[in-house]
Amino acid sequence: MKAEEARFLWLMIFFDLPVRTKSQRRQATRFRNFLRDDGFIMLQYSVYVRVGRGQDSLDKHVRRVRSVLPREGSVRALQVTDKQYGRMEIMLGLAKKAEQAGAKQMILL
């Protein structure tokens, strides 16, 4: 495949893992660390994303994620094209009171 024909795809991993016990927290941390070490970046706390060059690349990373699944919880994988990923909108709400108070404290210092 020529470079100009390369199709870039994004792989998004969504997960909801229990963290009530020390063992569960350890497994969730290991899973997040695996994602980071495998080239994923954190988009939100339980949403990680990475880009791949073609379907074969994404299939490889899905297999890797499947091989390290924690015993409990749920993990989902979603593939989107580069164009679809680029159309993502970031929407922010108002800052919480604690966040506003923290900002004022910074000004005072």
TrEMBL record:
<comment type="function">
    <text>CRISPR (clustered regularly interspaced short palindromic repeat), is an adaptive immune system that provides protection against mobile genetic elements (viruses, transposable elements and conjugative plasmids). CRISPR clusters contain sequences complementary to antecedent mobile elements and target invading nucleic acids. CRISPR clusters are transcribed and processed into CRISPR RNA (crRNA). Functions as a ssRNA-specific endoribonuclease. Involved in the integration of spacer DNA into the CRISPR cassette.</text>
</comment>
<dbReference type="Pfam" id="PF09827">
    <property type="entry name" value="CRISPR_Cas2"/>
</dbReference>
<comment type="similarity">
    <text>Belongs to the CRISPR-associated endoribonuclease Cas2 protein family.</text>
</comment>
<keyword id="KW-0540">Nuclease</keyword>
<keyword id="KW-0255">Endonuclease</keyword>
<keyword id="KW-0051">Antiviral defense</keyword>
<dbReference type="InterPro" id="IPR021127">
    <property type="entry name" value="CRISPR_associated_Cas2"/>
</dbReference>
<dbReference type="GO" id="GO:0004519">
    <property type="term" value="F:endonuclease activity"/>
</dbReference>
<feature type="binding site">
    <location>
        <position position="16"/>
    </location>
    <ligand>
        <name>Mg(2+)</name>
    </ligand>
</feature>
<comment type="subunit">
    <text>Homodimer, forms a heterotetramer with a Cas1 homodimer.</text>
</comment>
<keyword id="KW-0378">Hydrolase</keyword>
<keyword id="KW-0479">Metal-binding</keyword>
<dbReference type="InterPro" id="IPR019199">
    <property type="entry name" value="Virulence_VapD/CRISPR_Cas2"/>
</dbReference>
<protein>
    <recommendedName>
        <fullName>CRISPR-associated endoribonuclease Cas2</fullName>
        <ecNumber>3.1.-.-</ecNumber>
    </recommendedName>
</protein>
<keyword id="KW-0460">Magnesium</keyword>
